[in-house]
Amino acid sequence: MPRILAALAVLTLLAGCARPAAYVVLLDQPDHPGSAVTWTNQAGTQVVATPGSGTGADRADAKPADVFAVPEKDIQDRFGQAIKAQPRTPKSFLLYFQFQSTDLTPESKALLPSVLDEVKARPAPDLSIIGHTDGMGDAKYNYELGLRRAKEVQSMVTALGIEPRMIEVTSHGQSNPLVPEAKGKGEAKNRRVEVTVR
């Protein structure tokens, strides 16, 4: 079962409803299919694995209720503001570079507007930009090339007005290949920058 994230479950205390006084609701999480939330107390355990459903209990010594549906309107009425306040899911992009160069490949140039749109769509973006190289050349040179690639992408992002203090730029050089490569054989998929927008 995938890791249960705090954002998946919402706890509320309600009085005078047909539902238990305290209950959890599993929210729809398209990025985490198969998620579940578990309610456990002194009297037992109940697992909720269907988004829009819940369980709970009136007291700590009362058996957890059978799983019940929670209408979307109730979820929005009760938790809408908290749901809207959650940060968006981080999004990652891979941008590829020409051999021994800081020039993006044509395919990655075409992807750049999507990266920039994702940055602009967030009220306070936080970025991680990591430069990588293939295994051709020595480690010191490749570290520096990876850093130059990352800084090239950073300059494209700061040109949008994003504060440099919100961008972390690093290089892994040749030390973290995406694709294994034979000695002396460079792999194009390793000549990349990973951009994660949070």
Automatic annotation (TrEMBL):
Residues 84-198 form the OmpA-like domain. The keyword Signal applies. Residues 173-198 are annotated as: Disordered. Pfam families: OmpA (PF00691). Residues 182-198 have a biased composition (Basic and acidic residues). Coiled coil: none annotated. Residues 1-21 form the signal peptide. The keyword Cytoplasm does not apply. InterPro entries: Bact_OuterMem_StrucFunc, OMP_bac, OmpA-like, OmpA-like_sf. Keywords: Cell outer membrane, Membrane, Signal. GO terms for cellular component: cell outer membrane. It is found in: Cell outer membrane. PANTHER family: LIPOPROTEIN YIAD-RELATED (PTHR30329:SF21), STATOR ELEMENT OF FLAGELLAR MOTOR COMPLEX (PTHR30329). This is OmpA-like domain-containing protein. The lineage of its organism: Bacteria, Pseudomonadati, Pseudomonadota, Alphaproteobacteria, Rhodospirillales.
